[in-house]
User: What shape does this take?
Amino acid sequence: MTDLRALFGIEHPIVLGPFGGLSSVALTAAVSDAGGLGGYGLYGYDGDRIRATIGSLRAATPRPFVVNIWLPRGDEVLPNPQHTVFAQALQPFYEAVGVPVPARPERYLPPLDEQLDAIWDAAPPVLSVVFGVPSPEVVDEARRRGIRVVGTATTVAEAIALAEAGVDAIVATGLEAGGHRVSFLRPAEDSLVGTFALVPQVVDAVDVPVIAAGGIADRRGVAAAFALGAAGVQVGTAFLATAESATTDMHRDAIRSTAADGTALTRALSGRLARGARNRAVRAIEASGTIAPFPMQNWLTGQFRTAAIEQNLGELQSLWMGQGAPLARHRSATEAFEELLAGVPQPR
Ligand SMILES: Cc1cc2nc3c(=O)[nH]c(=O)nc-3n(C[C@H](O)[C@H](O)[C@H](O)COP(=O)(O)O)c2cc1C
Assistant: This one.
């Protein structure tokens, strides 16, 4: 097992999980400055925004950080007529926030090649991927530029596929985690393994360091992850609740006040399975029975979710959070980090 500290050039094996859409330079830099590996989610960013963001991260911290992209799964392009049907199904939500039913955009997401070109130009210290195995070209190019590559697995089979592709480390993410289930070999519904069962099995199956994720929010979770054989932890929800994250106060309060059994896995908001609070938007869309495939549903709901944020309507936002939400007690990134650090075994 390689030491994560040596692999990434960090002081403590604690990774801030990237948040597609909700990462902030301030939070990423705070975790890197504290000696962990700050993570930043580049989901949906075009090439220019990626170059600018990595530039801002470099300006904000002299320490290593990780940026994250979503690999395409081939279900990203959809014909026009379907767009109108699915957009109409969400009409009550657009009406509730006073925005028109949106016409189909030119594209839902920037192409992977455009994102990768920008990443190669900006050469971040670490690149992490979800929803697939990076191609040999991506792994080779990263290696050539001195960029470490991290893959993300929800099952042992996915971890083995990632290790065979030559990634430097693997995030093993259990079903407790906030945000999307990033399964890629089988449907997410058939790949639901809890962190406690997943981590030791992945540790046994691969030779690269394993980073445990899902439900880890305080020193007890960190200590447990190390006892299971993890080389490090990746924490999302506990950091999302801090002042430095890019989310709203309503979301922060929702994290602190949602019980562990108050979150749900749903396809309602994005078309892919993700864990968050079961608010009115989730309940109503599930009840309607009409959910567009990803990324169309994500884009379509995004049009009213953005307006809901501006209008402070928590029931119509996506309140992503994991089952450890009630453990997210700290309001500053530094305090949250110190709490987690207290669970890291000290060198003898
Ligand atoms: C709002 C939100 C957005 C997320 N977006 C991403 C993402 O774009 N890429 C990714 O690899 N993980 C993403 N995650 C997962 C986190 O990086 C992290 O692995 C996860 O939150 C860990 O579980 P926890 O929430 O129980 O701490 C997201 C999580 C949340 C809560």
In short: The domain at 4-75+109-260+323-341 is CATH 3.20.20.70 (TIM Barrel). The chain has a mean pLDDT of 96.
